[in-house]
Amino acid sequence: MSRERVLIANRGEIAIRIMQACKDLGLDYVVVYTEEDKSSLHVRLAQKENDLKRAYRISNYRDPNEIFSVADQAKCTAIHPGYGFFAENSGFARRATMRTRPLTFIGPRWEVIRDLGSKINTKRLAKELHIPVIPGSDRSIYNEMEAEGVAEELFFLQKEQGIQHPSVLVKASAGGGGMGIEEVSRLDTFRMVYRKIQNYAKRQFGDEGVLIEQCLRDYQHLEVQLLCSSHGEVVHFGTRNCTIQSTGRQKRVEVAPGFDPAVCKYPFDAKGVLDQIVRYSVRMAGHVGYDNIGTWEWIVSRDGSPYLMEVNTRIQVENEISASISRIKGATGPTNLIREQIRVALGDRLGFTQDDVSFKGTSIELRIVAENTNRGFVPWCGTITRFDYLDRPWARVYSHVPRDIPYKIPTEYDPNLALVIIWGQDTEQAKERARQFQRGIVIEGKGMEGENIVTNLDYLYDRIGYILQF
Amino acid sequence: MGINLDDLLRHYRSHIFEDYQVKTPHTGVISFEVEEGQAVEGPSGRWLQRPGTLLYILEREKNAKRIYASWKGQVTGIRSELEGHFVEADELVLFIRHRLDREEIIDRILTQMLTILRAPQQARYFLSSDILAGLEKRPEARIAIGPGDEVVIMSLMKRDTPISYRGEPGVLYKVYFRSGDIVEQGSPLLGVCPSDRLQYMQKVIQRIRTDWED
To answer: Which residues of A touch B90 (CB under 8 A)?
Structure first.
C-alpha cells in the first residue's frame, strides 16, 4: 500500500479509532477540530506527535470547504468521514472524488450513498426487490395536507388490522441517529407535530422534508453488518440487537449477535429470522454494487416479521461489537472493521470470503452519556473532573474525554462520553462482565450551577438485564 | 427603576475605548488590506447595508472572502507575519480600537434598565417563529411580551428547547443576538421594557443625547 494521508473529518471517539486504524495500516493522518473541541483527546493525541502538524482548527465540522481546504493544505490523499456529519452526504463524497485535486472518500461510492443514504430511496428499492418495509410514505413530504392524508390512511389501516392504540411516526427525512422523530397517537394533533418536525428539520438539516410511517410498538431493532469491496465481494459480520434506546430513540445498549435462543425464548424461529435479514441485506448490497462498510437496519415484530428500516452507508458507532465476536481466518485477534473499511476504500480486495469469517461469544456495548435518564434523557452540561475505570482484558473503552485533566463538555454536540465494549464467552458471561465493569467506572464533575454531574450509568446497569429479550 | 445616570456617564467617559478582536471566520490564505494604525470605518446606512473598511481577504477553495470592519476605529496589533499564509479558523489577526459613540452609550445604559432574558446555557439560539415573523414584518414594531410566552428556542446538543419569558409584561425593546448564533451562558438574549417604564426610558435617552458629546 502506498503512503496515503487520511484527513479524519470527524471528532471524539470515532476520530481516535480512525487515527488508530490509520496507524495500524501504516498510513499518515490529520485531524480537524473546532474551538469548542480543543480539549478533546482526539486533538491532543494528534498533536502529541510533534514532527508534523496533524491538528487543524476549523470553523465547523459541517462546512465542506473547511474540510477540503485543510485536506489540500495538509496534502491529504483521502478523507474518512466517520459517522454523522458528511458520512452519508453523497454530494460531499462526489465532490471529494471529482474535484481538481481528487481525494479518496473512505465510504461507498457517491452513487450508492445517494441511492441508499435516503430512507425514501431505500424503501423504494426494497419494494422492488420484494424486501419487506414499514408501511408509510415512500418519498419526502413537504405539504401539510398531503402529510395528513398519509397519516389518516395509516391510522385507518391499523384500525383495520385490529391495533388498539394506532399511531404514526413523523420523521425528518434528512435526519438520523434517532433525531427529529416524534410519535402521533391522535390524528387531531398531527398537524402540530408535523409543523414542529418540519421546523426542526429545516433548522438542523436544511431540508424540511418529512416522512410518515406506521409506528410499530412491540418490536426488536436489529442490524446486519456488511463489508463489501469494489471487486464485487460481499461479506457479512453477523447481526446486532439495538433495541435498548432512550426515549428520543437513541441507542444506549447494543449486543451482538442479534438474538440468542440459548438464553432467551422468542415467539418465533430466532435463528431463521436472523438468517433471513442477513440474506435480504446481502441481496440488496449485491444489487446496488455496494463497495464499502454498511449497516442494514431492521425492525422485527413479535410475530417474527422483519421490516427493513434504513441502510447506514457508513461505519456505525456500534460496529465494534460485531468486530469483537468475529474472527477472520488466519488473522490474529478480533476483526477491526474500521481498518477493513479503509483498506477496501483504498482499492484492496477483502482477501477472505464468508467461509473465512467465524463468530465467537457475545459482545455488549454501553454508551456512557451525560444525560438525565429520569427527566427524558435531557443532556447535562458541565465539566468532568474525573473519569476513571479499571482496565480489564475483556473490555475496551473508546473515549475522547481526557483522564488526566478536567474536560468541559461542548454544548454544540451530543454529550456522549465513552463507549464500553465488553466481550464474553456467552451472553451470561458478557452480561456479568458488563455489570462488573460498570461498577468500576468513576465519573465526577460539576455543572454550571455547581451541581454534581448526571450520567446514564445507573440506567445502563439496569438495562443490561433486559438485553436480547422480547 | 431608577439609575444614577451621572455615575454611569462618568464611568463611560473614563472607559471610552473598547478593543475588539478580529478573528478569521474560517480557514484560508490571508491577504491584509490595512496597516497598523490605520483608521477604519464600520458598516453604515439605514440597514447597515454599506460594509465597513476592507480589512483582509481570505481565500479558500478558490473563493475569496472579503472581511470588513464591523466597528469604526483604529487597527492595532496586526499580525503581518501571517500575510500570504494559510490560517486556521478563529485565528486572531488584528484588533480594532473603537471609541464608543453616543448611541452605543445609550444602548449600554438602557441594557441596565430593561428586563433582560439571559441565555440559560451556552447554546445556539433562535427567535421564536412568532417574534421573528413580527420583526420581519415591522422591524421597528414594539412586540408585546408577557410571562409564559415562548420567545426563544435554545438548540443545545441538537435538541430544541423553547425558552419562555418569565419577567414582567412589556414590549420587546432589544434583541441582543442574531438568530442561529451561539450565545454564552448568562449573556443577554432579549431586553424587555415594561410598558409603564417606556416614558422614563425616553427621558433617559433624551438626557444622554443632551449630555454626551461624540
So the answer is: 35, 57, 59
